[in-house]
Design goal:
Blueprint: E1 30-31, E2 37-38, E3 44-47, E4 54-59, E5 64-69, E6 85-88, E7 96-102, E8 105-114, H1 119-131, H2 140-143, E9 157-159, E10 171-172, E11 186-187, H3 188-204, H4 206-209, H5 225-239, E12 249-253, E13 271-275, H6 277-294, H7 299-318, H8 341-355, H9 358-366, H10 383-391, H11 399-418, H12 438-456, H13 459-472, H14 497-501, H15 544-547, H16 551-570, E14 602-608, E15 611-617, E16 623-626, E17 632-633
Parallel strand pairs: 2-8, 9-13
Antiparallel strand pairs: 1-3, 3-6, 4-5, 4-7, 7-8, 9-10, 11-12, 12-13, 14-15, 15-16, 16-17
Length: 634
């Protein structure tokens, strides 16, 4: 059923609060998850000024369900010097609506406890990707009041000169895909981690997601809705592969960002811009995983993905220094990454998993999975993505690399659990996390913690992951749910062109905004608090630095909420002994293999004047030389 009624304060209709208050608003002396707690899960709230006092939890009939003495108040550096008591009420394991009281005063917001408390949140965060679809109209029966006309058909995309294709009239079909963020561009590198994260969510929770209905146009077919939605983006990613050589165009955008208009009003020419080694490795990794996942549903499409992965890897191996550079005259997102080794490890891990081809395993000896590579995942740093795949496939990978991948996950997860000590908010975030897209740092940490739980079944990891979700949904010093449309006090005014231009008061639901950012230099700059970085937030569409949305932020949020809900609903987590459902004989790639003529433009590492330099050739054949630090050498 679509969204047919104008939304006022929350779209979590299954969790609608009808008790205690017409508005559900109380004094903000307590901060909590505003959407809901799973019945058997950890339940906590941060309470200011309650140390040593009794907090009583009552059900909607006013009966006492639990009495807790607030523990010692602790500070949490990102929140400043105001200490909070982390009150645990996990003993309440009966579904219902509750309210916390300090004396006669109701504190915090109504507390929702349910077996499916996170299901609507999970569905909304996945439905976000439907609302981001390019090249199609959104019909009212699926989009409700957010129905809109089709924009950006992208069936005749031009080649920018930076691709090396010089025929100005030549075009290709680059339709489908998801808009990247608040703008209308489509970017391979950011699609890589986003698509992978959602594929992993399905892979690890098949039983749950096979039944989850997202109310999208494909909902009545025999494929799980989450896979139908992911495929919309995968099919676009495949169009970005140059059929002549296997290389991958870096992005599909206009030459500059559009104004604040609906998709159908943005009619400027759109181009494939640049080719890059990171785009190639991203496609290789995602397409390899997709090949195995889609094989039970569409063997032809799965084979196409496997072949695309092989070709992309082959091109990347022969173009190791093809780093993306923003061409002159282009002013859209860059996703520049001059260090593609992490993507290479990730892609080869995915290819080895589906093929057992030893050539792909050679990268693990070439680039050992050492401690400096154990870092939180992001679009520009994908070591952890490789670790996820390797660690959860013990029947496939050799013990040495398996142990290294697991050490990566547990080292990070234990660090996050350690951050909870003497922490009044119970959140595994530290001050340095509060820069651009801080909420994605949180969600990605949650993904690490869920993997640690999958591998160990230790509850401490699942509890820490739950704490991160609670932070995103309201247990924070802003007393806000950072997911639009969900929670008593949710983000209302995101930097997101359709939400800004559609004339509808409420933003499209299910979008995770970027969150507090102490480096904000836009209209949110005046709200930056260096002594309380978790308060450096401005809920206004003028702030792309704190309130933009993005597919690579929603994806880990969906993974986190969806995994917690699926584990609770099924009573089990991913079986790491499960083997891939299908294997592929991915072609070996010989260094001596002849390959198609490359475009003149590109970068290449060379020895010149006794030193390693980067030779950069533009589309007109002009050559310049740079040292490895990027300084031009004449």
């Amino acid at each position: 059923m679509g969204i047919n009624n104008k939304i006022r304060t929350t779209l979590a209709s299954a969790l609608t609060v009808t008790a205690f208050s017409a508005t559900g608003l109380f004094a903000a002396t307590a901060y909590q998850n505003q959407v809901g707690f799973l019945t058997k899960s950890q339940k906590q709230m941060a309470v200011i000024g309650a140390e040593g006092k009794e907090i009583v939890f009552k059900n909607k009939s006013g009966e006492e369900a639990l009495k807790v003495t607030a523990p010692k108040a602790q500070t949490w550096a990102p929140a400043g010097d105001t200490a909070a008591s982390l009150v645990d009420f996990s003993e309440i394991q009966t579904a219902g609506t509750y309210q916390a009281y300090l004396g006669d005063e109701a504190i915090g917001h109504p507390i929702i406890i349910a077996d499916d408390a996170l299901e609507e949140t999970t569905k909304a965060s996945l439905k976000f990707f439907y609302f981001q679809r390019s090249s199609t109209a959104l019909e009212e029966k699926y989009a409700g009041i957010y129905a809109r006309a089709a924009g950006h058909p992208d069936n005749a995309v031009y080649y920018h000169a930076s691709t090396g294709i010089t025929n100005e009239d030549s075009t290709f079909d680059g339709s489908k895909g998801w808009y990247d963020a608040g703008d209308y561009g489509k970017y391979i590198v950011n699609s890589g981690i986003s698509t992978y994260t959602l594929l992993q969510l399905y892979q690890q929770n098949k039983e749950y997601f096979k039944k989850l209905n997202l109310n999208i146009p494909e909902s009545n077919n025999d494929v799980p809705d989450i896979l139908d939605e992911i495929r919309w983006n995968l099919e676009w990613m495949l169009t970005m592969q140059d059929p002549t050589d296997g290389g991958v165009f870096h992005k599909l955008t206009t030459l500059k960002f559009s104004g604040t208009v609906m998709p159908e009003k943005d009619v400027a020419k759109r181009y494939a811009i640049g080719k890059s080694v990171t785009a190639a490795w991203n496609l290789a990794a995602v397409a390899a995983l997709a090949a195995e996942i889609y094989s039970p549903y569409d063997s032809e499409f799965a084979t196409k993905c496997a072949e695309a992965a092989s070709k992309a890897r082959w091109w990347a191996m022969h173009n190791e220094a093809a780093y993306f550079e923003q061409p002159a005259g282009v002013n859209t997102g860059t996703y520049i990454d001059g260090y593609p080794i992490d993507e290479e490890i990730w892609a080869n891990a995915e290819l080895y998993r589906i093929s057992k081809n030893e050539e792909f395993a050679s990268v693990f000896k070439k680039y050992p999975f050492k401690r400096f590579r154990w870092v939180l995942q992001s679009w520009q740093t994908t070591y952890a993505l490789a670790a996820f795949t390797i660690a959860t496939n013990p029947e496939i990978f050799d013990k040495d690399i398996l142990d290294s991948a697991r050490a990566c996950i547990f080292t990070l997860a234990d660090e996050y659990v350690g951050d909870l000590e003497n922490n009044g908010y119970g959140v595994s975030l530290v001050e340095k996390d509060f820069n651009w897209g801080s909420n994605s740092f949180a969600a990605n940490k949650g993904m690490i913690l869920v993997h640690a739980y999958i591998l160990s079944k230790e509850q401490k990891y699942l509890d820490a992951a739950t704490g991160i979700l609670d932070y995103l949904l309201g247990r924070n010093p802003m007393d806000i749910s950072y997911l639009t449309g969900y929670g008593v006090n949710s983000a209302k005014d995101p930097h997101h062109r359709p939400s800004q231009a559609d004339g509808i008061e409420e933003a499209i639901p299910g979008m995770l905004v970027g969150g507090p950012n102490y480096t904000a230099n836009d209209c949110a700059k005046k709200y930056v608090q260096l002594d309380a970085v978790a308060k450096s937030y401005y809920d206004n569409s003028c702030s792309y630095a704190t309130n933009e949305v993005a597919i690579n932020w929603n994806a880990p949020f969906a993974y986190l909420a969806g995994s917690l809900q699926a584990i609770a609903a099924t009573g089990k987590s991913y079986d790491i002994t499960e083997l891939p459902s299908h294997s592929y004989e991915v072609n070996k790639i010989s260094k001596s293999k002849q390959f198609a003529k490359q475009p003149a433009a590109g970068n290449k590492l060379i020895i010149r004047n006794g030193a390693v330099q980067v030779k950069k050739t533009d589309a007109q054949g002009n050559v310049r030389y740079f040292n490895l630090g990027g300084k031009h050498i004449r």
